[in-house]
Design brief:
With 459 residues, the protein is mainly α. It is built from 19 helices and 5 strands. It has helices at 38-44, 52-61, 76-84, 87-102, 110-134, 138-163, 171-185, 190-202, 223-234, 247-254, 259-278, 291-294, 299-323, 326-349, 368-373, 383-388, 395-400, 409-422, 434-458, and strands at 6-9, 12-15, 65-68, 378-379, 431-432. The longest helix is centred in the first third of the chain and has 26 residues, at 138-163. The chain is globular. The relative contact order is 0.12.
Length: 459
């Protein structure tokens, strides 16, 4: 409107046009321009009433305030909001969030997170000690690989906790530990993860926002999106040469084996070098290059590159003497990354890939709980499943309350399920078995590929 970028937070209208270039989360807030972003704001920031986070955020919001939202306002936007938002669900969800805050469900158990970090470091040390003292024959080598894969997978879940600010009260300490774990222990960019992942959380499985489901040159995801792409291909407006109706078959070769060792390496390097050298990477919504990170001569991104380099220096120092030099430890690294990639892909995709995937205009219900639930599903809990998935088997709870410590998801899950049942949406709260959810990835790919083939031949 008039060149401004307006959104609503708790009944007030804010112009974020200038703030977007200073926003620590990058341009993710543009996802809600023209909408009521109250629940998304509360979910993605630590802004419980009376908290230091709330006071800090209020300080930033004050200069952006345009004024209160006029009561009874009419027009196309108001009509669209009324048609796509369940006010009863929103009201009950906000009450549930307040109850959970008062019950201490957003308070972390630091002993839990300390144990998670300790078992990662112990596994890494044990892998090195195995090769050092037992040699590099197949048995100790495979044992070391197993320990390193486990350490890397668990470090992936732990960096996710820090990235969502769910471990410490202090935002700065969460960010420091996030950078340590993801950069030094995993060799991935914290800024890359932050921007990519928060876009995913803002509007999951929404094709015009979520980068996790935008891969039309490799996989065709969602029946509706498959039909749209087929029509564009027939009209000469889109490329793609892969036989998508066979994607459930080539998934086994292209998906789990290659995502981490190939695609994520490419994305990290393009993102960091693009921003460090050119000030933009050309990825997603015009890069992460906000003034916050550009103000020091792009030093932030060079720091990330050096942090990542520390991972490879550490591996060279510890494994080169044991494995015959650079090629020895690089081979070990790629073996570990490839196996870890299977673990990561199956766990992260089992809760999303088989769920509703559409453009935002096609999402019938857009209130926060409905928007999240139709795009996610849970997987049954238990000691092994919780550990194996980093508690991301409680995906619905995680998407509703991203800053909640993961060890509390099992406690709040029955309350969340009751919320949906009370509002006549019990069918939106989907829970599966671990193997069932993984199997649904393949069957969904087959379904989407079939929809693409049918639409391609029709057009």
């Amino acid at each position: 409107r008039g060149g401004r970028k307006l959104l609503v937070l708790d009944g007030n209208v804010y112009d974020v046009g200038e703030w977007v270039n200073k926003h620590p989360g990058g341009k993710v807030l543009l996802s809600y321009v023209g909408e009521d972003a109250s629940d998304a704001y509360a979910a993605l920031h630590k802004v419980a009433e009376g908290s230091e986070g709330k006071k800090s955020m209020d300080k930033f919001l004050k200069p952006l305030l345009v004024g209160p939202l006029k009561a009874g306002k009419t027009g196309p936007k108001a009509e669209e909001h009324a048609a796509t938002h369940d006010q009863g669900m929103e009201r009950d969800f906000r009450r549930l969030r307040r109850d959970l805050e008062e019950a201490g469900m957003f308070k972390p158990n630091l002993w839990f997170y300390g144990a998670m970090l300790a078992h990662i470091l112990l596994l890494e040390a044990a892998a090195w000690a195995t090769l050092k003292h037992l040699g590099t024959s197949w048995v100790p080598y495979c044992a070391a690989v197993a320990m390193l894969v486990t350490a890397q997978a668990q470090a992936g879940w732990l960096q996710h906790d820090f990235g969502h600010l769910s471990v410490f009260k202090s935002r700065e300490w969460n960010l420091r530990m996030h950078r340590f774990v993801i950069l030094h222990l995993k060799a991935a960019s914290s800024a890359w993860w932050n921007y990519r992942h928060y876009l995913h959380h803002a509007k999951p499985n929404v094709a015009d926002c979520d980068p996790d489901i935008n891969m039309p040159y490799v996989f065709m995801l969602g029946n509706d999106m498959a039909k749209r792409w087929a029509q564009k291909q027939r009209e000469g407006k889109a490329g793609g040469v892969l036989p998508y109706d066979k994607q459930h078959l080539y998934w086994w070769v292209v998906g789990p084996p290659l995502l981490l060792p190939l695609y994520f390496h490419y994305e990290n390097l393009r993102f960091l070098l693009g921003n460090a050298i050119f000030g933009r990477s050309g990825m997603w919504r015009d890069s992460y290059g906000t003034k916050r990170y550009m103000s020091h001569g792009r030093a932030f991104f060079w720091q990330e590159i050096l942090w990542m380099a520390s991972f490879f220096v550490r591996w060279h120092v510890t494994y080169a003497p044991l494995l015959g030099g650079v090629w020895g430890w690089l081979t070990l690294y790629m073996v570990v990354r490839t196996i870890e990639s299977h673990w990561f892909v199956w766990v992260t995709q089992m809760s999303h890939l088989s769920m509703d995937i559409v453009k935002y205009s096609g999402r019938a219900r857009r209130d926060w709980p409905s928007l999240q639930a139709v795009a996610t599903c849970n997987v049954e809990g238990g000691a092994f499943n919780d550990w194996f998935t980093g508690h991301l088997n409680y995906q619905i709870e995680h998407h509703l309350f991203p800053t909640m410590p993961r060890h509390n998801y099992a406690k709040v899950a029955p309350l969340v399920k009751s919320l949906f049942e009370k509002n006549g949406r019990g069918g939106d709260y989907v829970a599966k078995t671990l193997l069932g959810a993984m199997g649904d990835i393949v069957s969904s790919l087959e379904s989407y590929g079939g929809a693409w083939r049918e639409a391609y031949e029709e057009f």
